[in-house]
Amino acid sequence: MVITRGAARLGMLAVGLGIGAAVAHTPVASADSSGDWLSSIDSVLSGGALPAPATSLDYQISIDGYDLFPTAGNTATATSGIGDIAIAYGDNSVAAAEGGFGDDAFADGAYATANAGDPTTGATGNNFDFASATGPSAAVAGNDGSVPDTTGSSFDFANSESEGAGPINLSNAVAGDNGSGDVASAVGQNVDSYAGESSNAADPANFDYASAVANSTTATKSTVEAFAGGGFSDLGGSNDTAFASDTSGTVGSLAWAGLGSNSDLAAAFGDAFHATATGANDLFTILGLS
Asked: Do the domain assignments include residue 197?
């Protein structure tokens, strides 16, 4: 997979190198020397000229706040802060890693969107967040800007995957939002997964895990969603876990854990289930087909 290969190579190249300075002083050439965009990075780091993209899909890479490829006519967008890496591969793909240090965002495919850290101008304290979006989907790790950044959101991981032509996001994964150590995964069509989510520092949302899985090629009539921690209402809650799996159903299923409480577990396996473990600590609800 392109992202896996790119992340591994960039990880090795970034260590101990002044990449920002290298890119800033590297001339841009219009001639094409390779169809492999990773070989273009190797050319930059070895002192060669940077060729223009030769693939049929747009792409952009941003490291330490510097774009590696021309932006004119390029529908792929990547932005980064100091110590961050963002890669967007695909027409109208967007990757942003900023608002902290050590944030990584990878958007793979047309209309894929990945945000790591915090997109708010001047934001800090959202460190080592990782967001990966594949296909027409959205992944946010850290603070998405919808609630005030009161605590910072670090070491969060969000992964979204979906098939389809876009441009509508068919799966959404959000981890963090005033919470750290949160993990959210959304795979399939018409899927939402939220881990963390708090609107204030008094009710943190840390170490929450949410996973939602649906059919990859056919969307259910209603959403398959998993909320762990504060969920859609930003109520906070830590150490909550939510699973929702409906890969062959038509109605959709829900799993809500926490929503202001701690150490809750909710799991829904199959179609048309609504599992809730909310309102108190240490609750668990598991629903599914026998």
From this structure: no
C-alpha to C-alpha distances, 238 to 130, 174, 221, 278, nearest whole angstrom: 20, 15, 31, 12
Nearest to 255 by CA among 220, 217, 210, 214: 210
**220 and 167, same structural domain?**
no
Torsion on CA atoms 87, 89, 92, 97, rounded to nearest 10? -10
Helix intervals (H) in the chain:
2-14, 19-24, 37-45
Task: Judge if 6 and 146 occupy the same domain.
Answer: yes
**Whole-number Å distance between alpha carbons of 224 and 244:** 7
* Vertex 175: Cα angle to 146 and 61 (nearest 5): 85
In the chain, DSSP finds a helix count (H) and a strand count (E) of 3, 20
| Burial of 7: CB neighbours in 10 Å, binned 0-12, 13-18, 19+ | middle
192 located within any domain: no
Does residue 199 sit within a domain?
no
Q: Three-state DSSP class for 194?
A: strand
Q: Average pLDDT per run of 10 along the chain, which is 290 residues long?
A: 38 37 36 45 49 69 94 93 96 95 96 93 90 96 79 92 81 91 95 89 88 86 90 85 91 93 96 94 89
Name residue 140's amino acid.
V
Q: Do 9 and 57 lie in a common domain?
A: yes
In a domain? residue 80: yes
Domain span including residue 126: 2-181
User: What pLDDT was estimated at residue 169?
Assistant: 73
Same domain? 168 vs 213: no
pLDDT for 51: 52
